[in-house]
Amino acid sequence: MAARNNREMKILVADDDPLTRRLLQETLEHAGYEVIAVADGRAALECFSRKDGPRLALLDWLTPEVNGLSVCREIRRHSEYPYIYLILLSSRRAKEDILSGFEAGADDYLTKPCDLEELKARLRAGERIVKLEDKLTHDALHDTLTQLPNRTFFLERLALCVVWGLQHPDYKFAVLSVDMDRFRVVNDSLGNAAGDWLLVQIADRLRGSIRRDDAILRSAEEGGMAGHPEEIGMLARLGGDKFTILFDHIRDASEGIRVAERIQHNIQAPFYIDGQGVFTTASTGIAFSGSGYSAAEDMLGDANTAMSRAKVLGKGRYEMCDPSMHATAAGRLRLETDLRRATEREEFRVHYQPIVSLGEGHIIGFEALVRWQRPEFGLVMPGGFISAAEDTGLILWIGNWILQQACRQICAWNQQFPCSPPFTMAVNISAKQFAQKDLVSQVGGILRDSGLAPDKLRLELTESVTMRDEERTTRILGELKALGVRLCIDDFGTGYSSLSYLRRFALDVLKIDRSFVSEMLNNSESQEIVKTILSLGSNLGMEVVAEGVETPEQVSRLKALGCDFAQGYFFSRPLDSAGVVRTLVNSEQNFYTLPQESPGRLVAPVR
After folding, report:
1. pLDDT confidence tier of residue 392, bands split at 50, 70 and 90
2. Average confidence (pLDDT) over 446-471
């Protein structure tokens, strides 16, 4: 059984002789090391380049391709590597050979065949040196009081973000400069020891102000950008009572505001020193990468300037370096906050747009469309909040709620207004909903609870949603089809449409995007696209619905092209449930005057 000796340090053995390599590996593993054994210098360099690479190395002078001397030189050339203790192994005993090994960057030199006990002693000495180097590096880059990264370390990390941001315009990050208000008064009145204790407590509260959904902790989990350093986010102490926070992989500037408000709330609670309550507040400045920085010092300087402005304007507050950006970010933050409350207060409404048979003028179904009855703002259309709902994950709750409401509603209407065939209901499924592992069971449960026949539900997906993972999409769509629901591709023609795509996913309905419908009278290319989609749907036995129909000329052209179904303002705007009921009641009386349209325009009754 291997003796661990409390040493779990990795060691690399690079030797082209398999017997020597095996002997060294077994000996060192028995001594408690984790051993990586390779046969040449190129493989050794690859191991060193890894984030969790070895910190000790035994390098044979004569390894093929890249010899041990070259490996030493390459390691010492790259200062970004943590310190690696290098021991050269060679049968060469000449003084000049030993000197050339040290000049190449080796820390030690052993001649072959080496005594194994001497080798282990040399490695123990190497371990002590590595740990000392790590401590020196840590101390050089960290604040001794709070153990947070210091200004030097922070600027190194921020510089990486700035370079990456210049190369990738979609990449966003932010810097928060945080300064304690009235700290000098506390320090002068209670003494330096109490001041130091208070700084440690403040550092802990700042850590506690950063949650797992904040970018500083999210960056390593999301990853995904090749070449970008992981765990780039950082909380640092710049000196005195000044701290700074770097947020990486953020969506927009409102994330910085969210954390600044949390810091204000956490810092204002009293600190107790020997039973005495001590109060302080924090002034925070925020700089956002959207301002186009090319130097880390400039971005930190802007955050400090914004922090100084916060102090001048009354302390205990935050300011952004760009006031116009502040208004935008604050609005976004309020939107997200109001959205969360809206789910609790059920402020959402479902409106229903009729889908009409062009040949007979009958309503054959409806599409469910969400609206938000936002206090102080009135009825908000999806374009005003869906993006924020997707970013916050609230789209999952909203989507599920819409599906429940729509299924219950269409059941009620089919009972109250029987017709043959019964009305159908179309409901949009977002990308995040489609990505849920339990989507199929959710849909099945809602169908059972509402009593809706599965074939009366149409789930609408966009092409971009279905194209993300072809294998999973095929499986999920197959399971939904097995439930009996019908599947529809929304905005067809705007994505990656192809015949094989439609056949592979066994879809039931195509919706022609409104952009093609609106342009088809003036643009021959758009008309050809509409004709192609209609032909494709006919050949595959699929229904085709034209969206965004607004004029009688569009209706006439769609009929001439063989389109059977349509929806749009020409027939009806989306209606609340009461509006739909009024429409259907009138229709049973054998006339149907379109709401919000000319009284003279009539559509045949629903039978």
Report:
1. confident
2. 86
Angle of the 524-539 helix axis to the 552-561 helix axis, nearest 10 = 50
Provide the pairing of β-strand 271-273 with 276-278: antiparallel
Average the pLDDT over 454-470 and give the result.
82
**DSSP letter string over 418-449?**
--SSPPEEEEE--HHHHT-TTHHHHHHHHHHH
pLDDT of 141-156, one tens digit each? 899 999 999 999 999 8
Work out the number of other CB atoms within 10 angstroms of the CB of residue 503. 10
- Reading the block at residue 391, the tokens are 């970013």
Cβ neighbours of residue 381 closer than 8 Å, sequence gap 6 or more: 371
Q: How far apart are CA 549 and CA 531, in angstroms?
A: 16
Nearest Cα residue to 546 out of 537, 558, 556? 558
The position carrying tokens 């056949």 is 503
Which residue bears the tokens 């947070």?
148
Give the domains, in start order, of the chain with CATH numbers. 10-141 (3.40.50.2300), 151-334 (3.30.70.270), 346-502+564-588 (3.20.20.450)
Dihedral angle computed from the Cα positions of residues 396, 400, 403 and 408, in that order, rounded to the nearest 10 degrees: -160
Residue showing tokens 């959710």? 442
Beta-sheet strand order (sheet of 242-248): 234-239, 242-248, 173-181, 281-288, 318-320
**Dihedral Cα 407, 409, 412, 415, nearest 10 deg:** -70
Q: Are 363 and 587 in contact (CB under 8 A)?
A: yes
Name which of 470, 451, 408, 457 is nearest 428 in CA terms. Answer: 457
Helical segments of 148-214, H only: 151-167, 183-190, 192-208
Query: What integer pLDDT is reported at residue 273 of this predicted model?
Result: 83
pLDDT of 501 > 70? The answer is: no
598 — pLDDT class (breaks 50, 70, 90): very low
Helices (H) and strands (E) in the chain, counts: 23, 21
CA distance 143 to 371: 51
CA distance 173 to 55: 32
The residue type found at 256 is G
